[in-house]
Amino acid sequence: MPTVLIVDDEENLRELYRTELTEDGYEVLTAANGKEAMELLQRRLPDAVVMDIRMPEMDGIEALGKMVARYKELPVVINTAYSRYQDDFRSWAAEAYVVKSSDLSELKKTLRKVIEKAGKGR
Amino acid sequence: MRILTLILAGGKGERLYPLTRDRAKPAVPFGGIYRIIDFTLSNCLHSGMKEILILTQYRSFSLEKHIQLGWNILCNKLGEFIHVVSAQQRIDEMWYQGTADAVYQNLYMLQQFRPDLTLILSGDHLYKMNYKELIEFHLSLDADLTVATVPQRREMSRHFGVMEVDADQRVVSFQEKPLEPRCLPSDPDKILASMGIYVFNTRKMVRCLVEDAKSHTQHDFGRDIIPRMVQSEDKVYAYIFWDPETKSPRYWRDVGTLDSYWEAHMDLLGEPPVFDLNDPDWPILTHEPPAPPARVLEPSTGEDESPRIARSMISNGCILKARSLVNSVLSPNVRILEGAEVADSILLEGVTVGQGARLRRVIVDKRSVIPKGRAIGYDLAQDRRHFTVTDTGLVVIPTDSVLE
Fold it and tell me: Which residues of A touch B207 (CB under 8 A)?
């Protein structure tokens, strides 16, 4: 069962993603910000990360940089309400960029794709 | 068209030790009054590149001080700047892993400036180059990356990254320090050596840097980024730094070792010099301490004897009572006392050579004092016990040495 780490400061969203992705057969881990995510990664490495950008403590841009530096093979999907971060060079290290939507089908499709790709790379 | 210039100045310069004991390689003095980085910075200004970041890492105090004192000449109000950016661990808690990583770790800066093109230069090369020509070449070919190259003799290939090009100067292969190099189509005795100078379309560069950051490589432009781009058939071209008429290479030196540092000084001294600094079209700018013109006196008091002085550069503030000074470069405020003899040597700022002392093929770093009657460079076995002596027999005396 593939494992995915959801990093988002909105608890409701974390729970929504947990429910939806668990139904799809993922094991879901959650963190409320980049700092929590980095701590969690030290204990457990998921198959992919889905991460918001605007978060307290440590934002998604900073956490993305650290994730790339420390876990080179770990694919990160940026999932934010703002499309303008897509043009920010610092977000380009992400494997994919998905603008938040109430419909999770794009996120799910992207997640499948990046996990498949990472699996092939190994 | 917005162009940001990044000057890489973060190398340790270990092969220049002890000159790099207390300073970064670009801050090593050169040619009497200059620091090595002055050549690259002068090129930038004469080429109209006035948005410059200097990326430093190790022992950068001396470099930062020099930039502050000598290069505070751009107009901030016109959007011009030279900023020294030290390694900041913006991405993670680590030093720069390679040249490409140095730029990757500064994505924040690139994001701030959003340049169309990024010009990547090295802070430790000696040459006079108009980067405008390089940029025009890059734009005319709609290249993703243009690498500046210089023709070198085939047998030098193991010192360089070697580019193989087609008739349009498109790079078709890249070899890092090969023993069996691929040569110029027009001249089988010559290779095209990478000068470590690159023009990138910024967006393309960022894509490549990010890809490289996620790979287990040495994170080096020459070893990793360029070969990968050539392999994936990105548009990589080689600009050739030569006289387009005669095809003779222009002067370019990477002063990587003590011997090449010394040889580059000797290039300043012939007639005409191999590397001419008396160039009104391309003056090299620097910071110089205030000092009066040099004074040359008789080698001994009371005698009407003329010193023999030839093929040498003598900076301001020097006072010479040398018996002879030949083939040498003196930085400001050097004192050569009565009857001393100096040949084939480089004396940096504030050095004193005592009465009757003799130096031959010696580099003396700042403020060191050579005592009365001492001979250095004549008995290498003896010199090796106290100093760095290179394979060619060059003796190097570190900063602030007071010899017995």
Answer: 92
**A48 class by beta-carbon count within 10 Å (0-12 exposed, 13-18 middle, 19+ buried):** buried
CB proximity B319 to A under 8 Å: no
Please give the pLDDT value at position B135: 98
What's at B370, amino acid-wise? I
Q: Residue B214: list chain A partners with CB under 8 A.
A: 68, 72-73, 93
Residues 6+ apart with CB under 8 A from B74: B45, B50, B80, B81, B82
Rounded CA-CA distance B296/B334 in Å is 11
Q: Do A72 and B216 touch (CB under 8 A)?
A: yes
As beta bridge partners, residue B317 has none
Write out the DSSP string of A100-117.
--S--HHHHHHHHHHHHH
Report how far residue B404's alpha carbon sits from residue B386's, in angstroms, rounded to the nearest whole number: 11
Closest chain A residue by Cα to residue B105: A65
Cα–Cα distance measured from residue B363 to residue B377, given in angstroms and rounded to the nearest whole number: 10
A93–B213 C-beta distance less than 8 A? yes
The answer, yes or no, to whether residue B404 has pLDDT greater than 50, is yes
Report d(CA B103, CA B107) in Å as an integer.
7
pTM for the model stands at 0.91
Look at domain B295-397 and name its CATH class.
mainly beta
Each residue's pLDDT tens digit, B24-41? 899 999 999 999 999 999
User: How would you classify the pairing of strands A27-31 and A3-7?
Assistant: parallel
In CATH terms, B3-266 corresponds, of 3.40.50.300, 3.40.50.720, 3.90.550.10, 3.90.870.10, to 3.90.550.10
pLDDT at A120: 60
Distance between A64 CA and the closest CA of chain B, angstroms: 9
Determine the residue of chain A that is closest to B101 in CA distance: A69
Chain B residues whose CB is inside 8 A of the A93 CB are 210, 213-214
ipTM over 0.90: no
Query: In CATH terms, is domain A3-121 a member of 3.40.30.10?
Result: no
The tokens of B270 are what?
């012939």
* Residue B363 bridge partners (DSSP): B346, B396
**Residue A102: is it exposed, middle or buried by C-beta count within 10 angstroms (0-12/13-18/19+)?**
exposed
